[in-house]
Design a protein that fits this description.
5-stranded antiparallel β-sheet, globular, single chain, 8 helices, oxidoreductase activity, alpha+beta, oxidoreductase, NADH Oxidase
Length: 198
């Protein structure tokens, strides 16, 4: 089995996170920046943007998310939601993934023939980048799970951290020390996923 496949297998959703990482914030930032730089984008447009939240800023995000979700969640379901958000806050930090929509719009104007495709390609670039960063963190034994509380938290996040108006929030990657391993992963039958022709 190649090292690449092993790395993919190691990337799992880790929900039991702690704040006990041996890596410094600087080391984590350097790793993430390198991975983002090397992740592909259409026309080398480099639309991905990342905001690092550590310490109080990280905890603030999940407190803000709780406030945003409380009026939207049935009262009987809210304790479970609250517990989930508190498990995120227990981690070391959160990476906020954005796409710069000004670049997307400029590409649409420059290459009208592909105008409808650029938002799609932007989403694909974001997903590739998120997966690459997540896998890179897993290689360093940093646990993570990917969340999507956008667009519910978009306005609050933009206001709290003065996010440029052209940046569109796409995902939140929570990370920290692995306090409990992920469960067994189930795979659907190959016959349902793959076709082959000769």
């Amino acid at each position: 089995m190649t090292e690449f496949i092993q790395a993919l297998k190691k990337r799992r959703s880790i929900y039991s996170l702690g704040d006990n990482l041996p890596q410094s914030q600087e080391e984590i930032k350097a790793l993430v920046k390198e991975v983002v730089r090397e992740s592909p984008t259409s026309f080398n447009s480099q639309t991905q943007r990342v905001v690092f939240l550590f310490g109080d800023a990280h905890k603030k995000l999940w407190s803000m998310t709780e406030e945003a979700l409380k009026p939207l969640t049935p009262a009987e379901a809210f304790p479970n939601t609250q517990a989930k958000l508190q498990s995120f806050a227990a981690g070391t930090g959160t990476l906020l993934f954005f796409e710069d929509m000004d670049i997307v719009k400029n590409l649409q104007e420059q290459f009208a023939l592909y105008a409808d495709n650029f938002p799609v390609w932007s989403e694909q670039a974001s997903g590739l980048t998120q997966a690459n960063v997540w896998t890179a963190l897993a290689q360093e034994n940093i646990g993570a799970n990917l969340q999507h509380y956008n667009p519910v938290i978009d306005e609050a996040v933009a206001k709290e951290w003065s996010i440029p108006s052209s940046w569109k929030l796409r995902a939140q990657l929570v990370f920290g020390s692995i306090e409990a391993e992920a469960g067994e992963k189930e795979y659907m039958e190959d016959s349902a996923r793959f076709l082959e022709f000769n």
